[in-house]
Amino acid sequence: MITAEGLTKRFGDKTAVQNVSFTVQPGSVTGFLGPNGAGKSTTMRLIVGLDRPTSGVATIGGREYRGLRAPLTEVGVLLDAKAVHTGRTARNHLRAMAATHGIPASRVDEVIDLAGIGSVARKRAGKFSLGMGQRLGIASALLGDPHTLILDEPVNGLDPEGVRWVRQFVRHAASEGRTVLLSSHLMSEMAQTADHVIVMGRGQVLADAPLDELVRAWTRNTVRVRTPRAADLAAAVGGPDVEIVSSAPDLLDIVGLPAARIGDLAADRGIPLHELTPTTGSLEDAYLALTGEAVEYRTKEIS
Ligand SMILES: Nc1ncnc2c1ncn2[C@@H]1O[C@H](COP(=O)(O)OP(=O)(O)OP(=O)(O)O)[C@@H](O)[C@H]1O
Ligand SMILES: [Mg+2]
Predict the structure, then answer these.
(1) Which residues, at least 6 apart from 27, have a Cβ–Cβ distance to it below 8 Å?
(2) 180, 30 Cβ separation under 8 angstroms
(3) Do strands 196-201 and 14-24 pair parallel, antiparallel, or not at all (unpaired)?
(4) 291 lines ligand 1 (CB under 6 A)
(5) Which residue, judged by its Cα, is nearest atom 17 of ligand 1?
(6) What CA–CA distance (Å, rounded) separates 286 from 3?
(7) For the whole model, what pTM was predicted?
(8) What is the pLDDT of residues 139-171, one digit of tens each?
(9) How far is the CA of 168 from the centre of ligand 2 (A)?
């Protein structure tokens, strides 16, 4: 279990993280979301003692990171995959890390295989592509077979095979009872990976909830209806709590009524339906609704 209690981190007059508290439970994958600059990486750095909090405390399994006797065997961390000695081969980088913890060379070869970098393990890490570097970072995190994984954007730069591997790997780790905290900006990937999500914005926690609960709370179910008598159907289903958007003459997107009710109302009036499709909101929809106010670096809207 990872616990953050009132974590605050100021860099000069910039408050990167403000009074952040949460717990990350073992046995599930917790997704860590938030716009660029929200404070996710800083929070992760505070948890593993790479930054010192201005106030508050973070613990892993009840102890502060600096109090862990063999940190590699307790927490696997991927924060900056570029943090390798560029002149060393990947294998030697891992062997040097392993040596600090008495981890045998056989485990080094195991994680090289796991991360799929066998063919380049004897090449200098400085020459690695983005994805290869990322895989080496993941191999480092797994070296000590830790009970807790803290991975900052692990799938950034990975090819589709690598993305799927990370998803399956962390799901499996959670199923073994491990604690997994994982950040990513890829909402569709996160939707398939995480059980629980913590969303940050402007240094604060905006939401901390099971993924399906968050999606339910921040999106609305829509029913897409296609009918040659759209105006008649719109009149039939209309009401104070029903919202109807029509983007084509034969098309209605209806919010506020279940599909079955719409179908019944149409049948009562003999209105033919050519399509009746209920759609549930996505994590992306929920995320955008939730973080709308907290985005610091906004792109221009395409109209
Ligand atoms: N060492 C530092 N010195 C000064 N400011 C910093 C430092 N590290 C982080 N910050 C600032 O703290 C804020 C939070 O940054 P952080 O990297 O934690 O965001 P993030 O949520 O990880 O964003 P991203 O999604 O872009 O990775 C940003 O405004 C950043 O500029
Ligand atoms: Mg970050």
Answers:
(1) 174, 175, 177, 178, 179
(2) yes
(3) unpaired
(4) no
(5) 41
(6) 25
(7) 0.88
(8) 999 999 999 999 999 999 899 988 999 999 999
(9) 22
Rounded to whole angstroms, what are the CA distances from 210 to 33, 126, 152?
A: 13, 39, 20
Average pLDDT value for the chain: 93
- 104-111 long-range contacts, CB within 8 A, separation 24+: 107/143, 107/145, 108/143, 111/139, 111/140, 111/142, 111/143
Q: Is 300 in the pocket of ligand 1 (CB under 6 A)?
A: no
CATH numbers and ranges of domains, the chain: 2-210 (3.40.50.300), 220-279 (3.30.70.980)
Residue ranges of the alpha helices (H) in the chain?
40-47, 71-74, 90-99, 105-114, 130-142, 160-175, 187-193, 211-218, 230-237, 259-268, 283-291
Contact 91, 165 (CB under 8 A): no
Cα gap 50→47, rounded to integer Å:
8
- Cross-sheet strand order for the sheet of 148-152: 75-78, 148-152, 179-183, 28-33, 196-201, 204-210
